[in-house]
């Protein structure tokens, strides 16, 4: 029964998606080289400030009304809450952490709106008992908006990749 429901949902999605008119929000806009470089710089500023454990500067890469959801599903809204969250993390579990984010894709939806995917690596985290945590790899997914000529993170989500287990742990990744 569950399979039939899933199949019906999939067929409805394919039918509606194939016959619905394209909306401007679905079309990718061409961003300028300057906009791409500015977005790359914001992502760089984010992870460098994170690695310096500077909660205020990290939060300043976000829009004033931004939404932030971390790898553990903890949500914060607005720069103040985001900064307070980083302040607590940098005093605790992330005190010795080092973060790197490498932009993998920028998709412009308009001259003021872009979606960005970046590979994330965080080293030096601590477990709840204070022991060293494993390297954390994941994907950072952000929506960025251009406000007053400046790109800022408006929504931030990150997903942590599961640790490889068994034979998969020793198998090289396919590129």
Q: What is this structure, in a nutshell?
A:
This protein has five helices and six strands, in the order H-H-H-E-E-H-E-E-E-E-H. It has 175 residues and is an alpha+beta fold. The protein has a six-stranded mixed β-sheet, covered by helices on one side.
Description of the structure:
The protein has a single domain, classed as Nuclear Transport Factor 2, Chain: A. A six-stranded mixed beta sheet has the order 2-1-6-5-4-3, covered by helices on one side. The protein contains five helices and six strands. It is globular, with a radius of gyration of 19 Å. Helices cover 34% and strands 33% of the residues. The N and C termini lie far apart (38 Å). It has helices spanning 2-19, 33-51, 55-59, 78-91, 167-170; strands at 62-69, 75-77, 98-110, 113-123, 136-147, 150-160. By secondary structure, the chain is an alpha+beta fold.
Please tag this protein with its features:
175 residues, six-stranded mixed sheet, 34% helix, 5 helices, globular, alpha+beta, Nuclear Transport Factor 2, Chain: A
List the topology elements:
Blueprint: H1 2-19, H2 33-51, H3 55-59, E1 62-69, E2 75-77, H4 78-91, E3 98-110, E4 113-123, E5 136-147, E6 150-160, H5 167-170
Parallel strand pairs: 1-6
Antiparallel strand pairs: 1-2, 3-4, 4-5, 5-6
């Amino acid at each position: 029964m569950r399979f039939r429901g899933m199949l019906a949902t999939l067929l409805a999605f394919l039918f509606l998606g194939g016959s619905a008119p394209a909306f401007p929000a679905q079309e990718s806009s061409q961003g300028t080289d300057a906009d791409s470089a500015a977005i790359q710089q914001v992502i760089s500023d984010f992870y460098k400030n994170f690695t310096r454990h500077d909660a205020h500067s990290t939060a300043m890469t976000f829009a004033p009304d931004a939404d932030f959801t971390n790898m553990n599903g903890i949500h914060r809204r607005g720069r103040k809450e985001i900064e307070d969250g980083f302040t607590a993390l940098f005093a605790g579990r992330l005190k010795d952490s080092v973060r790197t984010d490498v932009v993998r894709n920028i998709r412009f939806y308009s001259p003021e709106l872009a979606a960005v995917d970046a590979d994330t690596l965080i080293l030096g985290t601590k477990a709840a008992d204070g022991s060293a945590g494993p390297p954390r790899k994941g994907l950072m997914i952000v929506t960025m908006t251009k406000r007053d000529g400046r790109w800022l993170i408006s929504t931030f989500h990150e997903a942590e990749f599961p640790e490889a287990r068994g034979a998969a742990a020793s198998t090289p990744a396919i590129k």
